[in-house]
Amino acid sequence: MKEQFINKRFNAKSVATINEANSIIDEYLGKGFSLTVRQLYYQFVARGMMKNEQRNYKRLVKLMSDARLAGLTDWKALEDRTRNLAGGDCGFENPDEYMRSIGSDYSKEWWTGQKNYVEVWVEKEALAGVISKPCRKWRVNYFSCRGYTSQSEQYKAGRRFYEQLSLGKSCYLLHLGDHDPSGIDMTRDNNDRLDMFSPSAVTVERMALNMDQVREQRPPPNPAKETDSRHGAYLANYGSKSWELDALDPDYISDLITTRIEELVDMDLMNARKREEADERYRITEIGEAISENYEEVQAYLEDQGWL
Fold this sequence. Notes:
Layout: H1 12-30, H2 37-46, H3 54-69, H4 95-105, E1 116-122, H5 128-138, E2 141-144, H6 151-166, E3 170-176, H7 181-197, E4 202-208, H8 211-217, E5 222-223, H9 231-238, E6 241-242, H10 250-264, H11 267-293, H12 295-304
Parallel strand pairs: 1-2, 1-3, 3-4
Antiparallel strand pairs: 5-6
């Protein structure tokens, strides 16, 4: 929805940039993805419409803010994934309304009986929305590390993986992060600390960003931070350039995750669970609707039987 709050005149170059931004945003919304301003910026860079310079990023941030205020860009077009409202009031008007809805709430655990357990972790909160799409499709747990994962979260993850190991499952952690001194080291850190909290239980796989993907996708480079304590080792192994995960096409990231999950899942077993879920949901919906239509009679009957 476009809403105007200020009157502002834009020069021809700015109008062209806004129109191109709206086109890119619409393209990704059509695929089921929303973008952050930084992801939008990297799309401009990848398409050769901007040089990868910090001043260009800052200009785009300001321009898109003004464009929304001026009513030229949809307010829902760009996401801030680090600041979100929580809580709120929700519920039903009456018990009848709830009974009509109970079927939609029903689901089975798709991964019951699977030989593998999978989680997907991403370095940045801003990319949680990208990995959520394939993870929700496959009902896989996902987690935004926000850099190096806290000791508390590592401990809880270790307990989760150990519980799955006790059920006879093989455990996999798919990790995605920047290709820079700290981003590379975070995968190593996840492996080491999970091995401490859940010994030998977890196979940690670095899904992205890797050098073969850098060569294939050619995301715009940035200088590797010389102030990072891990810069020396990174420089020796990879050189002076670094690359951000945000610069990859969201579709590409989603496909990476989907492909690996498909390799780790028994599809025949999962499809059987899905069919059971659909049949049981339909039956529960029928029961709920019947109770809703005769709610007072059902309540009276249960009371007469002493069940209430």
